Amino acid sequence: MVNDEGEPGAEQPVRLDIWLDVACLYKTRSEAQKACRSGKIDVNGQAAKPNRLLRSGDQLVIGRPYGRKQRLIVKQITDRHLAKAEAKELYQDLTPPPTPEEIELRRAERAYRAAVTPPRAPDKRQRRALRRMKEGE
Questions:
Q1: Which label site among 17, 64, 119, 126 has the fewest CB atoms less than 10 Å from its CB?
Q2: Nearest to 48 by CA among 14, 76, 80, 79
Q3: Which pLDDT tens digit goes with each residue over 76-94?
Q4: Does the pTM exceed 0.85?
């Protein structure tokens, strides 16, 4: 990236929400903004707003589901969308791999949520299929 003076290598800071979207850490910029506003993202140990300017070398901590924390170091800054493989080169992921206990805990949590979630009412297509089955008997 080139700065206003035309010096190559001197990167311009970019808004946090834009960088999170470009780095493919969130699907959309609005999702990144929501995560910032809800306090799920820390930059250099401080809660960050979506309009915070991000620079190379900043450390990010992103709160993920099930209490997991993703730790990153910003390597490059850009505000242009890249392919997902190239976007992974914008940061260094320091998140340790999950332990077997964490994997089993997540699996149990998913099974519990699936069992506790109430069944939904049948939609139009399902109601018609049920009616046909009842009338056919």
A1: 119
A2: 14
A3: 999 999 999 999 999 999 9
A4: no
